[in-house]
Amino acid sequence: MNPSETPAESESITQTAASRQAQERPLIIKGARVHNLKNIDVTIPRNKLTVITGVSGSGKSSLAFDTIYAEGQRRYVESLSSYARQFLERMDKPDVDFIQGISPAMAIQQKNTTSNPRSTVGTTTEIYDYCRLLFARAGKTFSPVSGRQVQKENPFTVIDFLFREFEEGSRFYVLFGIPNRDQKVTEELDVLREKGFTRILTADESILDLSRDEYTPQQIKRNVHRVLVDRLILKDDREVRSRMADSIETAFREGFGVCYIRMRGGDEHVFSDRFELDGMAFEEPTPQMFSFNNPFGACKHCEGFGRVTGIDEDLVIPDPDQTIRGGAIAPYSGARFSDNLRDLIKVAARYQLPIDTPYRELPKTVKDILWKGRDEYIGLNSFFEGIKSEFYKMHMRIFYARFRGYSRCPECDGYRIRRDAQYVKVGGLHIGEVCEMTIGHAQEYFDKLELSEYELGIASQILYEIRKRLKYLNDVGLDYLTLDRLTNTLSGGEAQRISLANSLGSSLIGSLYVLDEPTIGLHPRDNTRLIGILKTLRDIGNTVLVVEHDPEMMKSADNIIDIGPFAGIHGGEVVFHGPFPDLLKAKTLTGRYLSNKDEIPLPAIRRTATNWLRLKGASEHNLKNVDAEFPLGVLTCVTGVSGSGKSTLTHHTLYAGLQKELGSYSGKVGRFKKLEGIHHIDKVEMVDQSPIGRSSRSNPATYTKAFDGIRDVFANTRQAKIMGFNAGDFSFNKPGGRCEACQGEGIQTIEMQFLADIELPCEACGGKRYRKDLLTVEYRGRNIWQVLEMSISEALEFFVDESAITNRLQVMEDVGLGYLRLGQSGNTLSGGEAQRVKLARFLSFNDSGHTLYFFDEPTTGLHFDDVNRLLKSFQRLIEIGNSVIIIEHNMDVIKSADWIIDVGPEGGYGGGTIVGTGTPEEIALIPESHTGRFLKDLLG
Compositional bias of type Polar residues: which residue ranges (predicted)? Predict the structure, then answer.
């Protein structure tokens, strides 16, 4: 110890040094054996960005989530009090020998688990909570009658008004009204006289003196005559100002909050120290007043949902590109109700309304007149109320049903909050209008927001928090989302990036963040911003662990761990660990693709189409009256930045429109004018990332029908025939050979009331799904349960002579899913895996052709080598006469397409147009195309 140091100082220095050493200690994992990991050891540096990569199914997620994150969570839970732990699900220790240096861990995965219809982007990111605080503290309330600001007056604001509006030397009276305490006027006058108020000012400014008998009570009227407090001359003098303040304060007090100022020979001005104006009493703003999740702030009509069952605007105005005069309003198009249209045209001529402008381009004020009415025109809302009043007539009920659907709540205009909360504005907008903005526009609004010095003193910290969160959301490429967008409508990638932005907004340090492919759903243009976000998370003092395949992310990483060499039982090893430059020299699959030793080749030729689907006038969401042509018999990629309108064009409009024409599709179809070329296809299939089955019983074997062949094989064994078992007995989905205690699930779910349900292996069968006697039946030394535990790759070798089984399973292997277990529950598959299982099923059908397949980002979770396999599967579909349309950001898939439709140029309001169409080489020459810019570099 230094002689000059005290023992306390020495101990503090020692603790600081120990803390610093702990902060720099790496994360050490030894003997990890979770799932297919083969007893691996790995060291991860602290406060660095580490990327874990490898082929699909190699064990990346097993290391990142099931080992490292799970142990971090378990240790955090163990650190809580015994009281807190009883409310949390018990967390088992991962199968690992030793983990040292782990921090509190947070996982940000590609899952959108929110189903709450009240949850929005704004509430999830806490931006809405800060907005509520901002509007409650710095908002100004405006009267809907006069548009004037509602303020609580006091003597000083009244004096300021007088000096601002009138010249010095003006004479005026300070007055208050004759109180009405349910007493006669004479009694009130007696009370006033006792208080010393003896003068009454009449309408003609004559004064009645209550101290004399020169008046009669009948002369005095409560609503006309005022009690005179003082007669004053406006003068900028300290003594005069003091007297004015005292007199006005007296008037407020005696007048129960209302003071009158009458100028000599002029007008009377009313001031109130209550929050009211134009005869209306207003609620003083509080944060709860702006909450649609609180009964106090929610609209009473829609209960805070913003939508009610009523008239669907899309059905009333089926083509928003038509004009009012041209027949845009469907209910008025017939002769029966044409009088309403004539009334509307008269009102339009009187007020010069632009009824020859397409409905889509009409300003909100004109649309309000159209729906709410004016003068002799009753409005669509009242029109349909009139129809409802005649529901005793069958044809009226049928007419009304044609236009019924979900519509914006008429009480709150769809803003969810009570009407008077919309009278409070900041920067000229109320909170509902702010939440209708995209994140990009909201960032611009708040950056330019000008507040007074007093308001800034109140709201500067609130504004800082809002701006910071908006910046992070913009940086992760979500500028196209609106703040009122429902969270349950977000994709997994969007939900993950919102969670990432939330983590940055919380400014936590010393934590371990584990992310699952954050670049999914992100155009290459936005990758740089996302990488910058992750580096910021690292630089403020966190360890960032990313499971990723994106080459740009790997280049930016401090450290890379490559798991492999292959998938399933052939993976689970650390094949490379080090910086990116060293990975380029490695002989791993990842290293070979990154160094271009292996590559996804360009197709030898670009196919040309002879038949086309032509979609005209698509105008759903942000699409701007788009005309698009989709070639058939080729591989088509729909590209563009996030939020540009790709899914709206492809899924919500083209796919939904085709389904409605070809089948019994009952979902909502995006608006369009015409769809041509349908006769060229027989059916359409959507291969998206939804689960392969709603039940936990669904698995790859049952979904691809391979399990039918497996059950037949076991039923044909000599032992099965002796015991009397048939193919049905080998099914765990129906009574027979299955374990009835768990009904073939293999697990039993125990309800814990207010605790999380616990899933435990079935005690009767030990988790093996079948009765013990049925498990004695074996084929080549394996029983049915052991077969279901096999990976698809193992099963292909095991059933090599059974073509009915291998034909179904080989396609699974071809699309890179050989590592999946045959009996793996469908609800444990990722979105990308579920999509490829569906693809394999279609490939196994040996379709005769003329089917149009839609894929939504099929490369989710895929390594370069898996993408190569996937492209070969697409080519197989096309070679037998089918067509494939893919929404994709992966440049290797885009460069391999025969035709590209690039949507954009930006997201949200800045998108919704076709930037360019053509081959990849042609798109690369379009300067406005963000996709073309990256294609140009890739194609050289």
Answer: 1-21
